[in-house]
Input
Amino acid sequence: MNQKLKQWVEEVERMCRPEAVHWCDGTAEEYDRLAKLMVASDMAKWLDERKRPHSLYFRSDPSDVARVENRTFISTPEKDDAGPTNNWIAPDELKRTLAGLYEGCMRGRTMYVIPFSMGPVGSPLSRIGVEITDSAYVVCNMHIMTRVGTRVLEALGDDGEFVPCLHSVGAPLEQGHKDSSWPCAPIEKKYICHFPAENLIWSYGSGYGGNALLGKKCFALRIASNMARREGWMAEHMLILRLIAPDGRKYHAAAAFPSACGKTNLAMVRPTLPGWKAECIGDDIAWITPGKDGRLYAINPEAGFFGVAPGTSRSSNPMAMDTLSGNCIFTNTVLTEDGDIWWEGMDVPAPAHAMDWKGRPWNGKSAEKGAHPNARFTVPAAQCPVISPDWEDPRGVPIDFFIFGGRRSSTTPLVTEALDWDHGVFLGATACSETTAANIGSVGNLRFDPFAMLPFCGYHMGDYFSHWLAMGDKLGKSAPRIFYVNWFRKDAAGRFLWPGYGENSRVLIWMCERAAGKAAAEQTPLGLMPPAGALDLSGLDVDARTMEELLRVDTAAWRNDLPGIEAHLARFGTRLPERIRRQFESLRERLAP
Output
């Protein structure tokens, strides 16, 4: 037994005072036993075995449905080290508050100890965590999302390092009281806390998603981004995709998009040009490390997909729908009368008789939506029909190019290639999208989400930009190319100009050919762009005039955007790298009339 781990578990047990302690072994028998316990307690339901084999259905408390960004904290000794994009409380103060909440918080419950590996067990690119929780729901989700159990303890050894992750739903169960179907604490007592100097995570009060599955955003991004900066690698909110050319050559892309920009759809894209194939390696997070040959290599640290259900359909992502055929956990979707699930945008008619995500009768004619907008599925990545055979390669895959993007109805062209690494970092630093109905604020406002890391960077984002620049300096000529895309440009009538989905592969193929030194590009004020005829549009109903509009650089509109970009960069104060400031001035000069 790892002595540091043993001591920590004993300390938590004394503080939280659970009724029992269970060390998770990661077996199928353990998963099934906990599933049966939750079904017996009315927390979960089995879906119909003929429709969705071995799948569980949950409804959360209406107060506990998503990440709680305003209750998420980066606790560094100096406030400025957390930066302007994070909430901060001093470590000593935050620990005093949480220690008071944790005292006796697991009374009447089992304390589960979950050893888990982020990345393939034993890979030099992987890291180990241990989550302590009083939620069987968390254990079952962690079984799917990470590699759990005895083999992780064996890899940890007697003196290996791990990230301690403490979680409680914050609802002690008094003797003789019936448990809630979804125990959690009130919003003002929810805390999701990160202590980067100690590689430590404490979460209290929420049982949902990234608030409770601490291997996901908490470890894989907020803590890992700090580890990566110290150790010389990168922890990124990125999908990893392999594209295979007709001649068999393999290309690998890592891509970051803000929400509602088609990230999961792109991770499972089906190329529409004959002879091209694609394989999914990861849909959400990439850990990227320089290899001995000077190139960057990426692993997907997760073992499953934790995806937003509404909007996922046969038309938007058929591979995801096939992945969800069984062995899933569904949370806050509609539950149909015949024991299956449904959500808005599924491409099938709403059920005539069902229960909505709050457990009320629902038939599709109600004013309220049946599924919560953040309803989720949890499913093993290995079930994806297009998962790469190398998705768990402990060496990772070599990255040929990075892609950033956003949702803009005008202004931003279909695709742009960065002029060089510094310009590419500037593109990532100024990534933005127009807000949708799912975002807070007025629809159509511009929201900057640098590198799609706004809620997930675990330190000052100005320093994060500096880390990207330093990685480029280290990589030199081996640095991947960087591109920026916008699938969402519209015409004057509000119709999308680009068909999207599988047709996005045509843009990806141009990127591959650029990486291979085969495709042409022409310089514009925004960067390098495909000239007329460079994108293969064979069999596609998009005329020359539409393509001209998709690739048009509206310099007047971009000049109007400059004050907003400047104000965004000003948020990072003196920690904004001078090289990023110079990139902004260069853009202003290139756009001058």
